[in-house]
Design goal:
It is built from nine helices and eight strands. The chain is of the alpha/beta class. The protein has one domain (about 5-140, about 200-275): Alpha/Beta hydrolase fold, catalytic domain (Rossmann fold), CATH 3.40.50.1820. Strands 1-2-4-3-5-6-7-8 form an eight-stranded mixed sheet, with helices on both faces. Helix 2 packs across helix 3. About 45% of the residues are buried.
Length: about 280
């Protein structure tokens, strides 16, 4: 069965692109990180998850095929969490497993405290807890320098090279960097969007209302936190701290993983997610 695409109204004059990949089990929503579209989820991972789930992914506002209009219609990060609920509504999904990476992990945490009724489970990785602790380390200096160039003007060719270099840093040093694979990923992202300018709106979005950390202690939704030991954005002990702030959360470590999903990470990541989402459930083979 071919994927089903939709444009979902999330605010006046604002739509997000979403896609459903049919699978045999319960719905699973993929929530990508900042300034990244839904096709940044590697196809290899989506296919693995779709063996067990009805997978939905989508483009955040100001990414991919969704509306790009931040200057005219500014929004807060918390509004992006409401967009995720709107996507579930558009596909007639009452409750879903949610998998969030980076900013996507922040959004799934907001769903955990605000809309637990819409979640079957949560998986969080490469992200920081809403319950911030001052002693936790920040992003690597090399990344901070590169992020300072986020809104610089670049030709399409220069933009592609910049994105590949960004992935090189995000990948960390635990696994060999496959430049051609990441270049192919970004070529698909650009082709999907139909534009090659640098998406940067999320860096300007208001962070008001994100101080919800204390509420995580009351979460009842089964939650998995995956530690990426080579993550240069949210390095250890961020994952352990996050798991400790969420009641009953499980912590799993994927060796060598940075702030990226290269081919070497797909198998252990899919296995960890599926072990969590199918625990205690009888699934058809």
């Amino acid at each position: 069965m071919p994927p089903v695409e939709k444009f979902v109204d999330v605010a006046p004059g604002v739509q997000v692109w979403a896609e459903e990949i049919a699978g045999p089990g319960e719905p699973l929503l993929l929530v990508m990180g900042a300034n990244a579209s839904g096709v940044a989820w590697p196809e290899e991972l989506v296919e693995r998850l779709a063996e067990r789930h009805r997978v939905v992914r989508y483009d955040h506002r100001d990414t991919g095929r969704s509306t790009h209009a931040f200057d005219e219609r500014p929004y807060a990060i918390r509004d992006l969490a409401a967009d995720a609920v709107a996507v579930l509504d558009a596909f007639g999904i009452d409750r879903a497993h949610a998998v969030g990476m980076s900013l996507g992990g922040t959004l799934v945490q907001l769903l955990l405290v605000d809309r637990p009724d819409r979640l079957l489970s949560a998986t969080l990785f490469c992200t920081a807890s809403l319950q911030w602790a001052d002693e936790l380390p920040g992003p690597a200096p090399a990344l901070l320098r590169l992020w300072g160039e986020l809104t610089d003007e670049r030709t399409p060719e220069q933009e592609l090279e910049w994105r590949v270099e960004h992935w090189r840093l995000l990948n960390g040093t635990g696994l060999e960097f496959d430049e051609q694979w990441f270049r192919g990923l970004e070529e698909r992202v650009i082709a999907h969007a139909g534009r090659a300018d640098s998406p940067a709106a999320h860096a300007a979005a208001s962070q008001e209302g994100l101080d919800r950390g204390p509420e995580l202690a009351e979460v009842q939704v089964p939650t998995l936190v995956i530690e990426a030991p080579e993550d240069p954005v949210d390095p250890p002990p961020h994952a352990a701290h996050l798991a400790a702030t969420i009641k009953g959360a499980e912590l799993v470590r994927i060796e060598g993983m940075g702030h990226a999903i290269p081919p070497a990470v797909v198998t252990p990541l899919a296995a960890a997610v599926l072990a969590h989402t199918t625990r205690g459930r009888i699934m058809e083979p």
